[in-house]
Every structure is written in structure tokens, then in C-alpha cells.
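Predict structure. Chain length: 189.
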Amino acid sequence: YVLICLCSCLICSSNSFAERLLAFACVEGIFFSGSFCSIFWLKKRGLMPGLAFSNELISRDEGLHCDFACLLYSLLQNQVHWQKVHLIIDAAVEIETEFVCDALPCALIGMNSDLMSQYIKFVADRLLVALGYEKKYKVENPFEWMEFISLQGKTNFFEKRVGEYQKASVMSGLQDAGKNFVFNTDVEF
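Prediction complete.
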């Protein structure tokens, strides 16, 4: 319920576009990071491969959405003051931490609610840096195996379903055309 209220207050309101974009980045980059992490914990142990594969696809898409929000935010002329950014990030971290602590009431081998809370703060710091701000929480990633999740893999598609994106060679000629692209926020629709 709190998640829905936060999203509707920040995204579907009269807040500035920059604030709504920050909220979108939090939804895509912080919310569910604990869930993704716990399913990757299962993958690391070779458990539930179907769920792990689905998790790869979904977390990859969420990551791309977050990257898009950060890129678009970097193009804005009127960005949000760092104190307001910290309030938005803090709210997202608090909601995600509460969710993870409720979902993980007992410690597992290599994972518990304290480590998950630290991981969520680590993810929030990474988001802050991607948005052009300094880290707030200054914590280390407690799950070293999560660093390898974002690395691009090569899958033998004869043996396994492929979960990576591949850039089409058709688009390679358009890369130079993108250099002349101008992003204009003054155009009215």
C-alpha cells in the first residue's frame, strides 16, 4: 500500500517532470532489487532454473528502464536539489527494506535481512551516482556474486534459451547518424 501511495504521489501528481523521473528511476532501480537478489541467490545455488531465467529477463529490462531514466535525467536543465533527491531515495529505500525484511524473516546461508538492507542501500548509492549525485549510504555490496549478474553473457542457443540482448548489425550504420541527434525539451506536443 505504501508503495502505491509513494508512486501515485510522485509519479501521478503535479510534481515537476524531474521529480517524477526520479521516482520512476527509484521504481525501476530500487524497488524489487531485493527480490531480484534473492532469486539470483537461488540461481547461484543451481536451484529453480526456470525462475532464475525469468528473473534474468525481468531484471535486465528493469535495469534498462532505470538506465533510460538516468540518461533522460542527465539531459534535463532543471534538475532536483540533492536534498529533495535524498528524500525520494530514502523513501524508496525504506519501502524496499521493509518489504525485504518482511519477506525474509529468517537468515539463510549467505543471506539475511541485514545483508539485504545493506544491498538495497548499495543499489540506491549506485542509482544516485548514475543520476549525477554523490553516494549517500557509502556501503559495500555484501553479495559479491551480484556483481557478475550484469555482465553480458554468451549463451549457446542450441543448449539453453538465450537471455541476453544482442545489438542488430542492421543498426550499426545508424550509429554515426545519432551524433547529429538533438534532444529538445522545448517542443510542444
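Summary: The helical segments are 2-11, 17-29, 33-44, 49-74, 82-103, 113-130.
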